[in-house]
């Protein structure tokens, strides 16, 4: 699916404004470049680029507020695959501190594999291998403290 440039550009602008506003809360030490500087620069670049992208539809004379329907939108499984990505991100953010990173990621990867027509046994095996490998990499190699949940296995 290709969204009109107007909507894509406005989404980029919104992301840039969000970065700029979030940087306002960062500390500002006296006499030095503050942690606010880089997010502000990146946010401003996003706003400028987003406005440039949004203006492309107007310069071509085809500003459309509603994107045209695509053939993939007629298949429920395709819509479920697309909708699962933001759902999985939100679910992980809400559930990982409670149930643990490994448990939540196992369930999400399993569901994702099923959505992509993997057989249940293959989905379980791939979820176990991928999630354990990623958890070990982040906790042991990168030393990122992932939420352990009630079972502190790693």
From TrEMBL:
It holds the Pfam family TctB. InterPro entries: DUF1468. Residues 7-147 form the DUF1468 domain. The chain crosses the membrane at residues 41-59, 82-115, 121-139. The keyword Membrane applies. Keywords: Membrane, Transmembrane, Transmembrane helix. This is Tripartite tricarboxylate transporter TctB family protein. It comes from Limimaricola pyoseonensis. The lineage of its organism: Bacteria, Pseudomonadati, Pseudomonadota, Alphaproteobacteria, Rhodobacterales.
């Amino acid at each position: 699916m290709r969204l009109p440039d107007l909507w894509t550009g406005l989404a980029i602008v919104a992301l840039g404004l969000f970065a700029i506003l979030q940087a306002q809360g960062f500390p500002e030490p006296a006499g030095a470049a503050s942690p606010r500087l880089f997010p502000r620069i990146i946010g401003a670049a996003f706003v400028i680029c987003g406005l440039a992208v949004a203006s492309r539809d107007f310069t071509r004379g085809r500003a459309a507020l509603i994107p045209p329907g695509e053939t993939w939108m007629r298949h429920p499984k395709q819509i479920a695959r697309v909708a699962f990505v933001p759902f999985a991100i939100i679910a992980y953010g809400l559930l990982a501190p409670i149930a643990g990173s490994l448990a939540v990621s196992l369930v999400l990867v399993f569901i994702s594999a099923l959505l992509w027509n993997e057989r249940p046994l293959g989905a379980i095996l791939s979820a176990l291998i991928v999630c354990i490998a990623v958890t070990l990499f982040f906790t042991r190699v990168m030393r990122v403290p992932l939420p352990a949940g009630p079972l502190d296995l790693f």
